Amino acid sequence: MRGPGSGYVLFVGLRYSFSRKRNRFASVIALVSMLGMVLGVASLITVLSIMNGFSAELRERILALVPHGYVEPVAGNLNDWETVAEELIASPQVVAAAPYISDQVILAGPYLLRGAVLTGIEPNREAAVSRVGQSMTSGRLDDLATEPFTVVLGATLARTLGVGPGDTVQATLPKLTITPLGTFPRTRRLLVSGLFSVNAQPDSYQAYVSLATAQRLFGLGTGVDGVQVKTTDLMAAPRQLAQLAKTLPPGLQARDWSQTQGSLFQAVRMEKIMVGLLLLSVVAVAAFNIVSTLVMSVAEKRGDIAVLRTMGARSMGIMSIFVAHGLGLAATGITLGALVGITLATHIAAVSAWLERLLGVSLFDPTVYFISELPARLLWQDVAWVVGASLSLSLLATLYPAWRASRIAPAEVLRYE
């Protein structure tokens, strides 16, 4: 019998893992360890897929209204925005450009008032940089250009204010009007001409007026706050806008969506990492349960170890047998857990719908969570990461019991056999 590279190592190790002739208690411990691995791996893959689904939904809905980037003056307003827009569109990285004016206001309905972001746009140009026009649930975005002092509200904001198309809201602007009677905040009544909905947070604070209306409300004359930009690739927009900024005239700067919305997506990414680490602790507990399984197996197989040593097996060969023994159990649990996790991740919507029917409750109220079912997006790199981390933890868990097995002296064992 030769050293640890021989085929007997894997054969004996796997035979120990799946042999039926074992101590009943040791078999139960091994089964519990394997089931713990199945549960941990399946939970980790499923939850990471759900987190990916939420992140994708968030990005899809919020970035439906947010352009890829902005080009704006370092200070003051931009008066020659048409020239800047033409120069930007001439760049191979820019698909479209549209002017905008944006500021915070207070909107008042019949009974309530709420803070909002009022954005002035040119509807025909806006359609090229965002999908707000495609998100209209009532009215048309183009009506803003033909009817002055009209406003399009987010559906949630309109519901909060208690208004709908045809009603009016009073906008209180961050400007002051000086009269002989004193100084008063500037206010203006706006006619609600339409509603939009992207089923995300912007529905609760965003409002749109035409560019001409915004210029009159905020007293900007012919100026704008900047130009919205759509690039050739949303995910490459930070790099493309950074390159574009180097070619801009002095006094202009470029910002991309990751600077305006990046903190939100960074928080989602950090939450995914933290949840992954927490669930990985379940896998770690299951992996280190293998320690107890191997310790009992080493005690049970002392006679076998002594016989193998007398037949010429080296210490490293004995150690490799028990490493293979532990990894055999772990690999079985990891494989089953990965299959369960992948199945759950790809059918989580159907599973949640079945639970809703079974329990007679709505797990996700669309008015609260903006979703009606669990989104999930399975990424194979996540599966590879979970499987790799689980195997690594399992390998670490097998080292000490396997090393102890390799230190057993055959003479002491055979003396009492």
Supply database-style keywords.
417 residues; 6-stranded mixed beta barrel; 16 helices; 10 strands; disordered N terminus; transmembrane helix; cell membrane; transmembrane
The description of the largest β-sheet is: 6 strands, mixed, barrel
Alpha-carbon distance between the two ends:
23 Å
- Poorly predicted spans: 1-5
Q: Oligomerization state of this entry?
A: single chain
Strand order of the largest sheet: 2-3-8-5-7-6
**Tally of DSSP helical segments:** 16
Radius of gyration: 32 Å
Describe this structure in words.
The protein folds into 2 domains: 8-60 and 265-415, no CATH class; 69-257, no CATH class. It has 16 helices and 10 strands. It has helices spanning 8-18, 24-62, 81-89, 123-129, 143-146, 155-161, 211-218, 237-245, 257-260, 262-300, 302-310, 315-346, 348-359, 366-369, 380-406, 410-415, and strands at residues 69-73, 94-108, 113-121, 136-138, 150-154, 168-179, 182-196, 206-210, 226-231, 252-256. A 6-stranded mixed barrel has the order 2-3-8-5-7-6, surrounded by 4 helices. It is elongated and about 110 Å long. It starts with 7 loop residues before the first helix and ends with a helix. The relative contact order is 0.19. The model is unreliable at 1-5 (pLDDT under 50).
